[in-house]
Amino acid sequence: MSVNSIPSPKFSNASATRLRExxxxxxxxxxxxxxxxxxxxxxxxxxxxxRDERVTGRSAQMLFEVLGDIWAVQRNPYLEDDLLxxxxxxxxxxxxxxxxxxxxxxxxxxxxxEHPKRxxxxxxxxxxxxxAVDNFEAHFKSSVKMRRKAEALLSKHTRKDNICFDGxxxxxxxxxxxxxxxxxxxxxxxxxxxxxxxxxxxxxxxxGLTIIPRGxxxxxxxxxxPLTPYSAVINTEKLLDMAPVNHAANLPGVxxxxxxxxxxxxxxxxxxxESAESAGLVFACDPTSADASCVGGNIAMNAGGKKxxxxxxxxxxxxxxxxxxxxxxxxxxxxxxxxxxxxxxxxQVEFSLKRFDTDNKxxxxxxxxxxxGSLFRKGDLGKDVTDKFLGGLPGIQKExxxxxITSGTWILHKMPPQTRTFCLEFFGQVREAVPAIVEIRxxxxxxxxxxxxxxxxxxxxxxxxxxxxxxxxASKAKHQGLPKMVLIGDVVGDNEKQVALAVSExxxxxxxxxxxxFIAVSPEARKTFWLDRARTxxxxxxxxxxxxxxxxxxxxPRMGDYCDGIERINxxxxxxNKLRLCAAVTQFLQGELPLRNYEDSTNKVELIGxxxxxxxxxxxxxxxRWQWIYDHLDLPxxxxxxKFAEYNINAGELSNRAANPILFHRLQDHSVRISWxxxxxxxxxxxxxxxxxxxxxxxxxxxxxxxxxxxxxxxLHMHAGDGNVHTNLPVNSDNYAMLQEANEAVARIxxxxxxxxxxxxxxxxxGITKYEFLNPEELADFHSYKQRVDPEGRFxxxxxxxxxxxxxxxxxxxxxxxxxxxxxQQSEIGEISDSIKDCLRCGKxxxxxxxxxxxxNLLYSPRNKILATSLLIEAFLYEEQTxxxxxxxxWNEFEDVSDHCTVCHRCESPCPVDIDFGDxxxxxxxxxxxxxKQSFNPVKTLAIAFLSTDRPSSVKIMRKLLxxxxxxxxxxxxxxxxxxxxxxxxxxxxxxGKPNMKEFVVHFTNRKMPGKLPNxxxxxxxxxxxxxxxxxxxxxxxxxxxxxxxxYFPGCGSERLFSQVGLATQAMLYNVGVQTVLPPGYLCCGFxxxxxxxxxxxxxxxxxxxxxxxxxxxxxxxxDIKTVLVSCGTxxxxxxxxEFEKIFPGCRVIDIHEYLLExxxxxxxxxxxxxxxxxxCHTPLKQQDPMKTVNGLMGAAINKSERCCxxxxxxxxxxxxxxxxxxxxxxxxxxxxxEKLRAEGNEGKVKILTTCPSCVQGLDRFKGxxxxxxxxxxxxxxxxxxxxxxWMKDYIKEAGNGGIERVLV
Length: 1305
Prior knowledge:
About 45% of the residues lie in helices and about 15% in strands.
């Protein structure tokens, strides 16, 4: 076959000029899909005919403008809400749409007599466009009416802030981890209790809304993506009830007791796993998304994970579950005679089905469902979830199409005490390495499974070569490069020796297949082995964070054939891409070639000479060679090698040991390489050598980069123990041809899986991404079931039914934004867009995010904020380009998203693509400030001013006003507003949008500010406020001129606010016998300003401080300072920009607590007081695990208290409503922590220690809420214990009596 005979998009790189003529389309849709969506398919055919006959194109352009406006608003709830709220703007848009249609009608009338046939088709198009505009207008009216009706009805059963029509809630629920979108939900509901769910379902049915059950939003097949515009997403993330582990539950029909765990549907999988683990047991349903997925979704999808190889999927481990059915009634499903193992091993499986009314009081019916165990899975395919009917068993594996799961009870297993983890790195041919999976399984299966000598495989995971690169895998084998395949597995048993022998044998088996083996024994080492597996979503960073994720299940004996088949597809796709490259290079060479002219008189034709023809001949020769290889991949190798000389193919030594080798096997083992650099670029560079042709070679490389960006490939990672293979194809969603090619590849992959007796879906389900690959026979039983239990489509209307595939689905594309937009080019908004474009929507950021507390009405995880930010940027671009002006509402919503961040930076660590939304938030705030759109907050402004001023008189006055008087007033306010404050604390209201003044005041005063603060700053107490002197503090009895000197940067919090922290730091340094150098005057590090978005101010502070510190260093060069100390984590982070190693050569920057530990300072024999430690968001303890430092200093094991205190610098004064929500989770955690201490028999007072000035204030505000909790800094506590209760007075007295040297600077 020739290149020209191959249809697009395989080899051609045709221009996409006709793909996207409709403006404001930043999606994967081409004009075709948009026209069909808005005008219908017949009108698309008419439009296509008219485009081919285009006269001037002006009417078409006006029609496209109309469709572009409608499409932009329909897919952006922020634009829709703004038009709903602003009649003037809505009228302006509708008038513009109708004006364009009127202009089209005028032009139509002018040409009607000349082209009557054409005029008829144009008339039909105009009529359809009018209808689209009428529908568009009617939607606004019906939405307003429907919202009022829905809120009135639904608010009878739940709080109003659990009923969300806002853009943030809707964009957060329009998609899942796939990023496929069809329709935005009409409303999002957040029921707080199970009882609310049934009532809300009933009312949604009465409103005519289809219900979409939704948990963590981590699905990979679009199971929770709404397909209809009038849908209600019921988010279960607030259903967090989790009972204690029942160690001896009586299971119906089972003659032994067994451990169980009851969880609400919204419990995050990881929390269930931790609860089981704390009881010495195992929660076996452990998908890779465990940090974000919810157990309700695990039930609905029948999810699995790495432990499925040992204990099966959700279905195997469920004892019972509760759900609300499409009639609004309750259904309780309980498994009888549970075999405590994999369900398909049981001959007959029985379930009890009990139906109750909406109030869950009256039993309506009861039945026993009996099914053969073999029905649940095909053969030995442990994760086959393609049968959606599943014998009519409700809820499980139905993907939310027959009801909503509200809770479940799980059986928990006892993990054998001995565990070892192996990591196998294969460096040979993949086709020869893959059979090792079967060998490992068969060997471990042959070992005893009962008694003390039992040994079992508890997990076996696989990464292919592409994933090894994507996760940044560091090879454990030395000097061999990156492996071609990695296997990671757990082996468990009761006998340590037997487990060790088994793991050693596994390594020996794989050594024979060219593998290097490594074994981890300690929990820390084992955890390290598994870390890379958790970052597999990073494969999508190859493109724009969009990937087609297909999981299949393959019989293990056929796994080698599957990997071979994927390699075959990859090689073909690579060759296609190379041939497209040849076409693009040829097109470039045939055009005008860019030259570097040094003289105007240079004749370009003479300069190029015959180089153009030589280059074209070279490209054609290479194209012919690559085309021949592509066409003859199945040619027997002997016949193919006979042609190598003719096509100038260089071949290395064949290492592929296939029984019947063909040309494909040469490419598979890389003995024949298809190389752009060697075969094409090198000869072209030789032809165009010289400085004159530098632009040509640069353009050639840019052409290659552009074509390479469109290359489709499939990457594999798998739960190798049960044959569940995740086959991922990263795709650039802005490249329409690439999407089509990827979809073709997916179809081949599905055919390949079926041909090997596999199934097309494992744990990910069917959703909308795989429906088209199921045949009618496979779906017939489910369709009958759906028609019987939910004929009206009350749950997930259209899902898993005919037509529910990807034809109506689209995804957004950042790459299409901003090419023509001034706002993207001239502001930081482009940088913000670029910084979030790689988000994978995996949700791994949720557990660590302080602003994701569902029970506190706070669901601002970085995932949700990124989805919202991208839509707001789209809104900015659309309104800026239409010249109707950017709505101030959008800037307010943009600011609201940026406000919902504590800037803790903790989201970066679990993120597979290293997005730090703390940095993004600061950039958003800076953008708002620069564009004059940041709202004025007087309290926050005064707080920043207090931290920024360096004049002693200003510090004194502002401290009196803001700390002494304001804190006292706030504490008085707390007393009078206590009833309203308690209501807020019990159930914080939603913080979407700023609160009104009354609510703001209540939020601001609902927890008391600290009392009994020092009357003066540390500097004022020591008399060293002048900014013209550098104080050097030393104990003259313990130091000499040669004693160690340190530079202590106290920062604002330790000096101006909680001066006891700065003084305790100085006192301890004074005590250990070092010379302490303080900076001159009051200084701020600049972090508060940067966090507030005042980048210019922060940079100015940083620059001024650095200049000042250089002067200090020059003045005190005789002290040889090697250590810079801080007592604040934000200071430590900000000082990284100061480059202290250039100020004090060879110095280090560490926290005072780590320094004291180095000096051997530690407490001993503490009794009475019980301690907790709160590790700040910006922890200053970075030398080792913070708890090691804390335990070392305190001389005892201290319990760590998780979650953010809610103070977060100026957050608590700038947005106290958000702070109230954040504190909700901290309050819950503190209650748990103190209860744990009491349960251990500790009756003394509880004191919580920290290492952050802001956290001291935040934690002190829980006093009275949690026992009589006291808060202090570790260094202050140490000073009290080591130096005595009067340490502060004693230190000030001693230092003031000849202990301070004042050096002028």
